[in-house]
Amino acid sequence: MRAVIIEPELADAERLETMLYACDPSVAVLARLSGVEDAVHWFRSHPAPDCLFLDVQLSDGTCFDIFKQIQSNIPVIVTTHRQEFALDSFRLLCIDYLLKPFTIDQLGAAIRKLHLLRGNTPDYSALRNLVSFPKPRYKQRFLGKVGQKLFFIDATNINCFMAENKIVYLFSADGFRYVVEHTLEQLENLLDPECFFRINRSVIVNINAIEQVKPYLNSRLKLKMRFSGVDENDLVISRERVPVFKQWADA
Fold first, then answer.
1. Quick check: 17 and 41 in contact, CB under 8 A?
2. Smaller CB count within 10 Å for the chain: N or C?
3. Is-contact 83 133, C-beta < 8 A?
4. Hey, how many other C-beta atoms are within 10 angstroms of the C-beta on 129?
5. Using one digit for the tens of pLDDT, what is the confidence trace for 70-126?
6. Domains of the chain
7. Does the global pTM surpass 0.85?
């Protein structure tokens, strides 16, 4: 089975590809694409694959923008943090809608549905019954370390996370800094995407802690937090993340 992955985050794309091979060794990933423009260019210059695995929110728009520019009857399995696009996904030939962080068992079940339906004319009423809409479960509290002491920090009391010299710090709303045993990539899957956003390679922020968004050099944005303990120069939204941030903040 020939597959294409459309996923803006490299770590998520690599994880998905590894899980696909574990679920079904017959899968051949033809391409990993990150955005609308990349995907449209690829589809216009290559034969159609057997299936697509795609996130809704891409680096330069949404997956729906791809199919405004190309005609497609390729089966789709959506993999995303955003549950609110589930019904919209039926505008595509959607086989399943997996909320991150999904398990290998959930992915395997989606692939079995795909094998079951391949070669048949899809009945959208039947597909609607096949698609699962799991309720997302995000981490509600974190274990933070200061010296040899451990503390519980509620997710609602977190202003931001910052990676520095391979250590990830949690900055709480009450002015403390803790070390946490998670990478930023792991945190992206553990945190509620309605509240938390990765603004650059080093920082994830809580929308409830943002006081102001200011224009910055080279079409970037800089955040002013109510309190973070982080230098404002570290709270700069990278240029490629600015369009996604604006969509997220205005959701």
1. no
2. C
3. yes
4. 8
5. 888 888 999 988 777 777 777 677 888 998 888 888 999 999 888 887 654 444 444
6. 2-130 (3.40.50.2300), 141-249 (2.40.50.40)
7. no
Q: Nearest CA to 94 among 51, 33, 62? A: 51
> Measured between alpha carbons, how far is residue 164 from residues 151, 169, 179, 182, 203 in Å?
20, 8, 11, 13, 9
Question: How open is the CA angle 127-130-131, to the nearest 5 degrees?
Answer: 90
Residue type, 217: L
- pLDDT tens per residue, range 13-51: 999 999 998 888 888 999 999 999 999 999 999 998 989
Q: Calculate the alpha carbon distances from 124 to 40, 86, 89, 131 in Å.
A: 25, 14, 11, 10
Q: State the DSSP code for 48.
A: -
Three-state DSSP state, 19: helix
Q: How far is CA 101 from the centre of its chain?
A: 9
Give mean pLDDT, residues 240-249: 88
Spatial CA neighbour of 221 closest among 207, 240, 202: 240
Which tokens sit at 143?
A: 């274990």
